[in-house]
Amino acid sequence: MVDATLTEEEVGRLDRQIRVWGFEAQQRLVLHFQRLMRNATILVVQLKGTATEVIKNIVLSGIGKLVIMDGDEVVEEDLGSGFFFRDEDVGKKRVDAAKDRIESLNPLVTVETITTFAGLEGPDFDATIQRVDLVCVTDWNREGLVRLNDACRRLGKPFYAGGTYGVLGYIFCDLLKHEYVAPNDRSVPKDAQKNIKLSATYPPLSEALRHRWTALTKRQTKEVNPAALWEYQKLHSQLPTGAADVAELQSIADAMISAADVKKQVLETAPAELIQSLSETARSEFSPVCAIVGGMLAQDILKTLGARDPPIANFFTFDGNTGAGTVCRMSMP
């Protein structure tokens, strides 16, 4: 049963909104959001730096149940970006090491762990997806993301993907046909705004990646997705390891730009400094980048569950070299 009143802390935090909308209206909005959160079950796949930030934010928001799937053990590299882990956890299963600390953030949230990736295959994965409301897969390869996204679409479940490659990061979402409520005109004062119901249709990742690059701006063309890294990962079953891989990654990126028929006045070759950065840092996780990407990913997940305001449409990339992010509609109407 959901508490029918706001706490003193919530009243203080929402003071401005209460003065604009009135206490009863704001209370109805908050209680509606709380009900949606407390009824929500979210699956997060792979507990690395990005997922750590996602989990922290969605657990603190008060979701009903969190299911975490990860078959790997804690390694020393996880200690820098995974604040659920400690030195003594090295060698333990990631989900086992993190479970108690995640539960301590919000004892009202049920935390379930799956200590193997075997559940990502065949009927077992279908069974897992069917009992959750939303799937979030982090730091995964392109082929796996496409396959998991397709499974989620077949079962009618919203899908998020995200991750970081050194100082770079991305978010992708496929929300099927998503309905939400948003103000009709944000240019007018809040007391004059009216909420209207809107909808957006999202494509799967496989279709989004076929988006015409010629329709992108120069900045979007440079930053829009980790395509070259994903192609390198497909060829070598791993990410670049350092300076020795710069030339090959540059060649892959340039070939993709050429095949996409990008106008030469927009972009003739992949920026050398970007390729250098990717080659040398892609295998590393940096806490500030994970915090930004994971925080935005969590915020968008909560926005989707709450069906208030439009989620990202539908690809976001972050460049820690510049501190800037880019959102691009990839194959969306």
Structure, explained:
- With 333 residues, the chain is an alpha/beta fold.
- The protein has 2 domains: 8-206 and 287-328, NAD(P)-binding Rossmann-like Domain (Rossmann fold, 3-Layer(aba) Sandwich); 209-281, no CATH class.
- The protein has 14 helices and 10 strands.
- The protein has helices at residues 8-13, 15-21, 23-38, 49-61, 78-81, 94-105, 122-130, 142-154, 205-208, 218-223, 227-236, 246-259, 272-281, 287-306, and strands at 41-45, 65-69, 110-114, 134-138, 159-165, 168-174, 177-183, 195-201, 315-319, 324-328.
- Strands 3-2-1-4-5-6-9-10 form an 8-stranded mixed beta sheet, with helices on both faces.
- It starts with 7 loop residues before the first helix and ends in a 5-residue tail after the last strand.
